[in-house]
Protein 1
Amino acid sequence: MTPARRVVTLPPSLVGPEAVRFARNAQQRGADVLEVRTDLHAPDAIDPRALAQVLPLLVSERGQPIPEPWLDACWRADFDVAHAQVLAAPVGKLLASHHAARSLSSDEALALWSRPLPEDALVKHVEPMEASAHVSVLLETQRRLSERYGAHRVTVLGMGALALPARAVLARGNVLDYVATGGAWAAAPGQRLLDDAVREWTRAPSGSRARLGILGTSIAHSRSPRIHLQPFDRIDLPEDAPVEAVVDAMLPHYAGFAITSPFKLRLARHVGATLEAINTLVRRGSRWEAFNTDTEGARTVLERLDSGGECLVLGDGGTTAALRGVASDVGRTLRVLRRADAQGTLRGDVVWTWPDRVAAPESLRFEGARVAVIAYGAPGRRIAQDIIRRGGTPLMLGAAWFVAQARRQRELWETAS
């Protein structure tokens, strides 16, 4: 199986030499194509020939016509299939696209592609994903368009807050895979990260292994894809996303999921787990089996906070559930403080479980306290600085927790059926 060509879009803030530097960086990270859109850049804001010397250039008409210098330098030109100019694209350069305003049935989607196209044109069909279950319809649309035009010409994409896992599945049969480079700006909702797409094909080149992924909010920093079997997707969802529907719809396509904040308790209830919170789902035929390997991480953290006696825990979510599960095994008692209770000055051993996006009470202070930080990477460093500001001594135990629980996750996913 040949991987789809990875397409990154030039951010609107980058022009001139900065645009060329972006293209070089993207090329070094594994991008195959650079897209430039007329709604994001004025005709004279970029040097298309300089960009095309770095990566093949895809120029896309979005509201404003594509300038002639862009067309001259491009590898492909994206015109809407209903646009009068679509057949006037330079010979051999047409990418005919359609961006639907709503989710369509496959019959509706195929009806949009009745216009004759040059035999060398690529075909791109895009729909908003109003529900995760629509992935099955998009896969059928992809199959039928590939039968009509040839699999070497077709790309089908979903868009929206719930689209990322569907786009990862669709990429297996697409010619183009539109991905995000990371950071605050994204070209479209639902794009997976360039680094994850590259890792899939460099560490699992056959493309035959069932997918794995991590579900959470604000997880671009997650190290899970670096250590787990590939392909492994970071699926970043809003806190109020219908994550239950996402895991149900992806059951045929994913062998397992890592679950992180804020979905550990919700998904435990959804799959009928006997556990208060879960961090691992493993496919068992037509159902999910739930586990909480966070207990392995919790055990590691409490053993390193080895002064004995009571340990204060800030926050009462999925992480705290894991700590409760092993506290008696390691001879510790826990006192759990929710945000409303975490006021004044705390002493002794403390575990900080709040993610960095959750602001701690301003009155919270520490005196002679060792505070275990469960987060790692940039979020962990931000939490540590906050702890120091409040008078505590941070213990960076997030990586130890992560490795301990991930080792057990990997063992479980290898049993998926």
Protein 2
Amino acid sequence: MTTTSTLLKIEALSHGPIHNLSFTWTAGVNWICGDEGTGKTTLLRLLAGDVQTTEGSITTPIGGVFWVNLQDAAHDNITVQACWDGLRSSHPHWNDEVLNDLAEALGMNPHREKQLHILSTGSRRKVMVVAALASGAAVTLLDQPFAALDLVSIRIIQEFLHEATDHPSRAWLVADYEVPASFQSTRVLQLT
């Protein structure tokens, strides 16, 4: 059963490429799509509070918004396990079972004690996606979660998101160029 309660809301939001945007997101899986430079990542960073809006307002839920960008060089010398442990400590609804299941399914267990700078781009993205999906946050923000991943990993993450499509109290906002064909029935904000 899909709920219509609003978990996240923006009103007249403006920042960078985003101008006077209003939208609401409900529980389940939602998509933010658009071409390069349309503001997908900027919008995620605004929703997470990573950057401040120029104009407008953002209403976030009790239970928090999860966002992490592990591509930054500041994370290079941390191990995969230390990264997950650090994120776990700031997310009270963290789900270790989800983390362990996804780490196993995505082949990340042999990499747990490796520093992030040693990992391939795809493996580094897997660290981020596993953390996001295990966070237990009311709203989870995912920026191009399939980029640089193999087909098996993409299928595993898509299966997780399919199961979350009708979640009654949590939302996942996925930013990407387009919605995969199997998700055509989910809500989409198209940025231009």
